[in-house]
């Protein structure tokens, strides 16, 4: 019995080891990279001509000039630095919203379009930080689209400002600053 106990003890000792599951190596390089395809709308970003900028005093609107430059930079995208571009673009958009707009563009349609662009920047940042490449590409395409809508709206607003409103002898309407006194507030 003693001789049987010793081999049985050795057998139990070696059989109690846990079997380690075999894991396959994960290629972290492809999983953690942000892959961006340049959307077609990145090439179609509307550029304001210098005459329009000078005539409507956009060159004096420093925050918007920064936004224009940043949008041009992000359209010529380096995928490695997308997070840096988006963080900087978000900071620029916050400064743009906080500071006063020029009189010609201090209207609710322009302000709301800037807020839409800012929302798209936040979406892009979210998708880039979570490495959701397909959604990031769609969000970037939407960002360029919303920026183009903002530029078109500014062009239309500038053309509307050229039309004299006093052709019928009616006093000019007063526009309220929607950022300071929202139209539907209870104040």
Can you walk me through this structure?
With 187 residues, this protein is mainly alpha-helical. The chain has a domain at 44-162: Four Helix Bundle (Hemerythrin (Met), subunit A), CATH 1.20.120. The chain has eight helices and no strands.
Q: How is this fold's topology laid out?
A:
Blueprint: H1 2-15, H2 28-31, H3 40-43, H4 50-55, H5 62-75, H6 82-98, H7 108-129, H8 133-162
Sheet of most strands: none
Structural class, by secondary structure, is mainly alpha
Q: Write the H/E string, N to C.
A: HHHHHHHH
CATH class of the domain at 44-162: Mainly Alpha
Approximate shape: rod-shaped
Gyration radius over CA = 29 Å
The CATH topology of the domain at 44-162 is what? Four Helix Bundle (Hemerythrin (Met), subunit A)
Number of E strands: 0
Residues in helix, %: 55-70%
How far from one another are the termini? 97 Å
CATH architecture of the domain at 44-162: Up-down Bundle
Condensed summary:
By secondary structure, the chain is mainly α.
Provide the descriptors you would attach to this structure in a database record:
mainly alpha, Four Helix Bundle (Hemerythrin (Met), subunit A), 187 residues
């Amino acid at each position: 019995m003693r001789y049987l106990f010793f081999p049985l003890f050795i057998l139990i000792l070696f059989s109690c080891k846990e079997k380690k599951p075999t894991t396959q190596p994960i290629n972290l390089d492809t999983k953690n990279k942000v892959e961006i395809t340049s959307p077609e709308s990145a090439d179609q970003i509307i550029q304001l001509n210098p005459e329009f900028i000078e005539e409507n005093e956009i060159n004096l609107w420093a925050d918007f000039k920064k936004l224009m430059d940043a949008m041009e930079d992000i359209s010529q995208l380096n995928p490695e630095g997308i997070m840096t571009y988006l963080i900087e673009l978000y900071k620029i958009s916050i400064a743009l919203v906080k500071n006063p707009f020029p009189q010609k563009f201090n209207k609710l349609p322009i302000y709301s379009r800037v807020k839409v662009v800012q929302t798209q920047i936040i979406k892009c940042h979210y998708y880039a930080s979570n490495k959701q490449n397909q959604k990031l590409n769609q969000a970037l395409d939407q960002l360029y689209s919303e920026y183009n809508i903002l530029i078109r709206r500014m062009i239309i607003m500038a053309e509307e400002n050229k039309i004299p409103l006093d052709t019928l002898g009616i006093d000019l309407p007063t526009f309220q600053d929607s950022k300071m006194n929202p139209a539907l507030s209870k104040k």
